[in-house]
Amino acid sequence: MSVAASRKLINAISIIGVGISLALTIYFINLGVFKDINALRGLVGTNTILGPLIFMSLQILQVVIPIIPGGVSNAAGVLIFGPMMGFVYNYLGICIGSVIIFLLGRRYGKKFILGMIGEKTYNRYIGWLDNQKRFDKLFALAIFLPVAPDDALCLMAGLTNISLKKFTLIILLAKPMSTFLYSMALIYGGTFLSGFLG
Known about the structure:
Layout: H1 3-31, H2 37-41, H3 50-64, H4 70-81, H5 83-117, H6 119-125, H7 132-144, H8 150-157, H9 164-197
Helix pairs in contact: 1-5, 3-4, 3-5, 4-5, 4-9, 5-6, 5-8, 5-9, 7-9
């Protein structure tokens, strides 16, 4: 599959995912699940083992294939499982997904990465790869902050000489803050939206 074709496929999947997310959000607001935590928990099942596994699998999937916006799934995790365990499940799923896309970027290289993130994003960050020490620092800072294109940078990290061990360590240490901030911002934003629409 060419870069252009794979890019179109990823864009189509993303657009469909956003559309489904919006439709489900409206549907769930009408059902009142944002006002009833028990109803919301029921969406992923009441099983204390299977529910978290299903949710973490979805988190891993949304990192590797952008089906739904990551921030939305972060907020859902906190709403469904509570602040503590929701954060843990979000964190684990996102970290595993990040390592997977790093390995995919390393295995399949530039053509695959361009197909996933597009030429514009690629060109914006390719300069970071010129100096390995500089890249490691910028990458760690970007992963720590909640506004950076984490998935794109994880893919591009596969083109550098960073070791899997160092990459994983950066993800494990820097991801908690951005995951927490995304989750909380969307929770409070969702509460405001629910009150506004209700």
